[in-house]
Amino acid sequence: MSIKDNLLKIKESLPQNVTLVAVSKTKPLADIQEAYDAGHRIFGENKVQEMTEKWESLPKDIEWHMIGHLQRNKVKYMASFVALVHGVDSLRLLKEINKRAKQNDRVIPCLLQVHIAEEESKFGFDETELLDLIHSGTLDSLQHIEIKGLMGMATFTENTQQVKKEFQSLKRLFDRVKLELPGIEELSMGMSGDYEIALAEGSSMVRLGSSIFGARN
Ligand SMILES: *Cc1c(COP(=O)(O)O)cnc(C)c1O
């Protein structure tokens, strides 16, 4: 099936209120253009340099989401255009994004990443760290950041019960955080291999790469 066919089929299957981020990392401009021509406008990348190069070459009404682990020294390169940063996992990073957003005279929407997987390799706040950050009041002082919600990645496993439990724990935390930050609305969870489980557990935003663009090398 073509990228267009994959995209349209997936879009048709998603609930109306769920946002699809088409993860185009490692894929060439032509692939993104094909998805764009099929009407899609939201793309996710995990490397700042690659995202910036693609932003320069492609239509300017694309919303670029940074979904990967982000180093502080790279924030400045994307601060003028990034539409949503999914993987914010430290206060230091949040402060840097705030600083660069201010220099660009804008507010940058961010999701706080929560560590829900068993794997150590995945990033994010744990539950206590996240609640401490919210209670600290520090977020109020970061006027060029808008916290839009939470993001998490489940363990890479065939065990769907485990994946389900991890998404459930993130949804519970999201509901709890929402009591204190009523403005949050996005729960970014679900990739090609697990997004159906994520949707059943309350995801509002899925990040799909290989199911749209085909396997990566
Ligand atoms: C690569 C990536 C995805 C998409 O992965 P697929 O399995 O190809 O859908 C989603 N989220 C993050 C954070 C990624 O790095």
Task: Explain the overall architecture.
This protein has 217 residues and is of the alpha/beta class. It has a single domain (3-209), classed as Alanine racemase (TIM Barrel), CATH 3.20.20.10. Helices cover 42% and strands 18% of the residues. The protein has helices spanning 3-13, 29-37, 48-57, 75-78, 91-103, 127-136, 138-141, 160-180, 195-200, 210-213; strands spanning 19-23, 42-45, 63-66, 84-88, 108-114, 145-152, 186-188, 205-208. An eight-stranded parallel beta sheet has the order 7-6-5-4-3-2-1-8. Helix 2 links the parallel strand 1 (19-23) and strand 2. The chain is globular and about 50 Å long. The two termini are 18 Å apart. The mean pLDDT is 97. It binds pyridoxal-5'-phosphate. Pyridoxal-5'-phosphate binds next to strand 8 and helix 10.
Task: Provide tags for this entry.
217 residues, alpha/beta, TIM Barrel, 8-stranded parallel β-sheet, 10 helices, 42% helix, binds pyridoxal-5'-phosphate
Strand share of the residues? 15-25%
* CATH T-level topology: TIM Barrel
Look at the structure and name the CATH superfamily.
Alanine racemase
Q: What count of structural domains?
A: 1
The number of distinct β-strands equals 8
**Low-confidence runs:** none
Task: State the assembly state of the protein chains.
Answer: single chain
SSE string: HEHEHEHEHEHHEHEHEH
Estimate the mean pLDDT confidence: 97
Task: Output the strand order for the largest sheet.
Answer: 7-6-5-4-3-2-1-8
CATH class term:
Alpha Beta
CATH architecture assignment name = Alpha-Beta Barrel
Number of helices: 10
Radius of gyration: 17 Å
Bound molecules: pyridoxal-5'-phosphate
User: Span from first to last CA?
Assistant: 18 Å
Which structural class is indicated by helix and strand composition?
alpha/beta
- Biggest sheet layout: 8 strands, parallel
- Characterize the overall form: globular
